[in-house]
């Protein structure tokens, strides 16, 4: 059994310091996040190669917050939350639960989703999204045309299905990187979720 030790002020398991200087592109992303949330997530301060962090964060932003998405903002955040719950990514669960509430989803619904989406009061379309996200997250090697059959049956277009797959894919990536590096959730994120 692994002994639990408090991490104090550390923002991750990494044994290297946060970068003292950031590129203009990363500084812009951090400023955008601070303006939107009031703080910068620890994940945007980790000592990644800046061009990698910027590229991955811009893709996440495009898929989740991009104005030209085919899915509604609520549907996009629902996918991000279901994937994060399946992966037990505490940082991502709290962040996306809070974001889902900001789309107008009731806190009572979001609370159920953070435990078991199958018990949540979802529309047929939302249920198809959650089912797809769960299957692709848990059993990616088994993916065949039946995985997208449920989305088609719920009325999703082929173009929407591509977007769904990209969102599920990117959040499986971010969950795994966040988890293995031990990225810690900001205190401000806990407060925002509780206040929701």
How would you explain this protein's 3D organization?
With 196 residues, the protein is an all-alpha fold. It has a domain at 73-180: AhpD-like. It has helices spanning 24-37, 50-65, 73-86, 90-102, 107-113, 124-138, 145-153, 158-180, 187-195. The chain is globular, with a radius of gyration of 17 Å. Residues 1-6 have low confidence and may be disordered.
SSE series: HHHHHHHHH
| The first-level CATH class name of the domain at 73-180 | Mainly Alpha
* Structure annotation, total helices: 9
Separation of termini? 35 Å
State the CATH topology of the domain at 73-180: AhpD-like
CATH architecture of the domain at 73-180: Up-down Bundle
Q: What's the number of extended β-strand segments?
A: 0
Percent of residues in β-strands: under 5%
**What do we call the CATH homologous superfamily of the domain at 73-180?**
AhpD-like
Mean model confidence by pLDDT: 94
In terms of structural class, how would the helical and strand content be classed?
A: mainly alpha
Portion of residues in helices?
Answer: 55-70%
GO molecular function: peroxidase activity
Domain Carboxymuconolactone decarboxylase-like: 57-107
Protein name: Peroxidase-related enzyme
Keywords: Oxidoreductase, Peroxidase
